[in-house]
Amino acid sequence: MSLRNKAVAREIYYPETDGEPMAETDLHRNLMAELISELETFFQDDPEVYVSGNLLLYYVEGDPHKSVALDVFVVRGVGKHERRIYKLWEEGSTPDVVFEISSRKTALKDAQQKSQLYARLGVREYLLYDPEYDWMPDGLAALRLEGGQFVEIEVKDGVVRSEALGLDVVDTSETLRLRDPQTGRFLATKQEVIEAQQQAEAARQQAEAARQQAEARALAEAEAREKAEAELARLREELARLRSQT
Hints:
The protein is α+β, with helices and mostly antiparallel strands. 41% of the residues lie in helices and 24% in strands. The chain has helices spanning 3-11, 26-42, 88-91, 107-121, 190-245; strands at residues 49-58, 67-76, 86-87, 97-101, 125-129, 140-146, 149-153, 159-162, 167-171, 176-180, 185-186. The longest helix is centred in the C-terminal third of the chain and has 56 residues, at 190-245. The chain is elongated.
């Protein structure tokens, strides 16, 4: 890139918002936040998996109008550092999985425009979920990239396997959950993580209190032994003195 082109590139402003609200309702926003939290916890030990959401992805360098808002997404091969926007040409990695928490207002755009764009960009899996069971009576739809095109994956009994994540995506008929097929357990929710941390801290404090009590008992027993031994020594000395006087 020439110096002039570099200067022009530096002058281009890529907004951090498209002017649209983060989510249509509290239900949509809370589910987005929950999925992000669960995925962040699941991939916390992998430094090359980035989880985010409610972020603008820019996919054409130099054109700030070419962007798409991602509800929840996971990218392999990039670092975990915080970002204000996601520039595809700088990151070098397309999101592997995108979750769309859809609604009647965004349904057509989610199902058609976004799916076509994601296929062009190379997104491996695209999962759409309607938490209100409004425009999608079945709740969950899943698409996987094959030959440059998305093909629909069968959702059986509300469950579909995400090959990109290594997780089951489960429509419980009340909400969307993620399940580890290795353990058969749902990923812990944010509240469950908080409760587990609180329980672990309570157990730690209880163990520390027990340790301190044990140390105090041991110290008291040691002091009692010292006093008994000292008294025994005094009595022996007194007995020896009395014998010497007879």
